[in-house]
Design goal:
By secondary structure, the protein is of the alpha/beta class. Helices cover 38% and strands 14% of the residues.
């Protein structure tokens, strides 16, 4: 079982979590999307007093999403007496939608580069791991799916996968996941994430609140300036398990942790804000299991974090993802 964090995607040029918002804004500025960015700046200036648009400091993107969720919850407390409040429920929801669409467009732009030499590392990585592998990725991007597709390795977004496939579980969502009923282009292949086969061999699907997955990974299939709001979940525990499909993903994540004899955690720094992920990963060590091999591949100073939060028996390689692959450590 392999857990991937932002450090794995960084080898292909994607920013780490603390730089994601800054790079996304710079990308959209070059493309003249200033009116949409203005909506984000107004939110940042109010909820982050230290933020100034002409400075280099930006809060982490996931923290902004979490702040938007908190603002929505606060409105419920204040309503109906706060109807005149500028940051009312509908205003925050609209700005969150804008934020997610801008983020989606920026991350999807990397699909234009998957033919470059740097992408060969991801292909080599998935090729070396082969099939019958469970990937847990906290990344919103599609590098893993694109690498598997390029290597003609079928994958499934569930643990109900065949022996010649791999499973991908994305607890924080993905830029190719959308709410049921989202209108995409006619030439885009979609399916319901919750679709599964029952005991009679018949396909079943979730009700209207299920997640719709776009399996077409081309770079511009959703149309320029027509990007839809993706299903991306900030690291706030309640929000991550509201949807039935997301509940299944987290339950599958927990089951996989219990069952795997070996766990590799690559490029994931175990942020304190992601408490639900910490809770699940904690099950990898004692008292649940005393002999499981846990290897953390990360160039940062994360040894104390993992040993305090997961298990003192974790092993470490202070090395970057691309070095890990190039040295044949897969």
């Amino acid at each position: 079982m392999i857990v991937l964090g932002a450090g794995a995607s960084k080898s292909f040029g994607l920013p780490l979590a603390d730089k994601l918002l800054q790079d996304m804004i710079a990308w959209h500025r070059v493309r003249g999307n200033n009116s949409q960015l203005e909506r984000i700046f107004k939110f940042l200036e109010y909820f982050y007093p230290a933020f100034q648009r002409d400075r280099s400091w930006f809060p982490p993107a996931e923290d902004v999403l979490a702040m938007m969720e908190v603002a929505l919850e606060y409105y419920k407390i204040r309503s109906p007496i706060s109807r005149g409040n500028f940051w009312r429920d509908d205003e925050v929801r609209n700005r969150r939608s804008t934020f997610l669409r801008l983020l989606c467009e920026y991350l999807w732009s990397f699909q234009e580069k998957i033919h470059l030499k740097e992408f060969s590392l991801f292909r080599e990585f998935v090729r070396a791991n082969g099939t019958k592998v469970i990937y847990i990725t906290f990344n919103y991007d599609l590098l893993l799916e694109s690498a598997l597709s390029a290597e003609q390795i079928p994958f499934s977004y569930t643990l109900q996968f065949n022996s010649d496939e791999v499973a991908i579980l994305k607890p924080h969502g993905s830029i190719n996941w959308f709410k049921k009923g989202t209108k995409l282009r006619d030439d885009v292949e979609v399916f319901d994430l919750g679709t599964h086969v029952d005991q009679r061999g018949m396909e079943e699907s979730n009700p209207d609140d299920c997640i719709q997955v776009c399996l077409t990974l081309g770079p511009k299939l959703l149309g320029f300036r027509k990007w839809k709001e993706p299903v991306i979940i900030p690291p706030t525990p309640m929000k991550q398990v509201e949807n039935p499909d997301l509940k299944r993903i987290w339950a599958s994540f927990s089951s996989a942790i219990h069952a795997t004899p070996r766990l590799e955690i690559i490029g994931y720094s175990l942020p304190a804000a992601d408490r639900l992920a910490r809770l699940v990963l904690r099950k990898a060590g004692p008292p649940h299991h005393h002999n499981r091999r846990i290897l953390v591949v990360n160039p940062g100073r994360v040894k104390k974090i993992y040993r305090d939060a997961i298990w003192k028996g974790c092993k470490f390689q202070r090395i970057k993802f691309h070095e890990w692959v190039e040295h044949g450590c897969v």
